[in-house]
Design a protein that fits this description.
Elements lengths: L5 H9 L20 H9 L7 H9 L7 E7 L8 E6 L9 E6 L6 H13 L9 E5 L4 H6 L21 H12 L4 E9 L3 H14 L13 E5 L5 H12 L12 E2 L2 E2 L5 E4 L15 E7 L8 H22 L1
Parallel strand pairs: 3-4, 3-5, 5-10, 6-9
Antiparallel strand pairs: 1-2, 2-4, 6-10, 7-8
């Protein structure tokens, strides 16, 4: 979605239209979805790509220098959707432990492949200083369907809390708890895409029976920190690292990114724990959520993956500098 047509989108929706000229095709405006609407939504989903072929096959070669751990499988299909994490081998309880997650929203491709690229190219440069554990694709069903929800119309990235309704979130939390270590930093890799406005946020509004209020998709990379623990210098270090790879998202005309005021260039804050976000489920000192914009005409897939890697290394370099 281009910046210039955002107001038109808002006006069209208030006239009973979305970007495609139609009200969201499932449900009744103003009414929350029940089982019938959720089933109708699920019936419309189709497999677009293979998790086993595109993700798991890239993890197998890593076993030569890293530990590959299966920490569960999704009940939707336990054969198709095993859940994997990768751990550095030089595990030492005296070292800080770093958690990297990707694909919490399965459709956000560079989060998955950026995490894998970090494992392929950079992890050994940091494994002496840190214990590193990476869960590259938390939501493999979402990866295949190219969606942010799971089959139950639940958003895993709003479900990181006790008795989570999301299998994906619950499995990751249980796995991290089983490590028996404190997490020093958590870098959660995400994307903001044009489809957030053309599909996912309209679907969310329809599911919850509320009015869809269109927003501007920022053109560039940005971060989401924690309102309760912002760690501004840490976030700035990541921004400076990513700046070498891709452009940083500017604020909109109101000084915001996705409706939130900037705390510094390229950084906004959310109440991550209260919202059940992945980056907020540990009590780590340093936490951030990356947001790459893959639909920008200024980037390609490789640059998006490289931006995720640069975010991780920028975070780790900062932590090393203050240890």
């Amino acid at each position: 979605m281009l910046f210039s047509n955002c107001n038109a989108v808002k006006n069209d929706y208030k006239k009973g239209k979305t970007m495609t000229g139609l009200v969201y095709p499932i449900g009744t405006p103003g009414k929350k979805w029940e089982a019938e609407e959720k089933a109708a939504w699920l019936a419309k989903q189709t497999i677009e790509r293979s998790y086993l072929e595109e993700v798991v096959t890239k993890l197998e070669p890593l076993k030569k220098s890293l530990e590959l751990v299966q920490y569960g499988a999704l009940s939707y299909d336990v054969e198709k959707y095993p859940l994997y994490a990768v751990k550095s081998l030089e595990w030492d309880l005296s070292k800080p432990t770093i958690l990297v997650t990707g694909g919490v929203h399965g459709y956000e491709t560079s989060g998955v492949h950026g995490a894998i690229k970090f494992l392929e190219t950079e992890v050994q440069n940091y494994s002496r200083a840190f214990n590193i554990v990476v869960a590259p694709c938390v939501s493999p069903w979402g990866y295949e369907i190219i969606n942010r929800w799971n089959p139950n119309t639940v958003d895993p990235n709003r479900s990181f809390y006790k008795d989570s309704p999301s299998e994906e979130s619950a499995a990751l939390m249980q796995f991290v708890a089983s490590l028996g270590v404190s997490i020093t930093a958590h870098i959660d890799l995400h994307e903001t895409t044009d489809s957030d406005e053309s599909e996912f946020r309209p679907a969310l509004a329809a599911r919850d029976g509320i009015e869809y209020d269109a927003d501007i998709i920022p053109d560039g990379f940005y971060l989401v920190g924690d309102t309760e623990n912002p760690m501004d210098a840490f976030q700035k270090s990541i921004i400076e690292s990513v700046r070498k790879v891709t452009h940083i998202a500017p604020a909109d005309a109101e000084g915001n990114i996705i409706g939130e005021p900037l705390t510094q260039e390229g950084v906004i804050n959310y109440a991550t724990k209260a919202l059940g976000l992945c980056s907020g489920f540990t009590d780590c000192t340093y936490a951030t959520t990356t947001e790459v914009y893959p639909d920008s005409p200024l980037v390609n897939d490789d640059e998006c993956n490289n931006a995720q890697v640069a975010a991780i290394t920028g975070a780790l370099n900062y932590i090393k500098s203050v240890m």
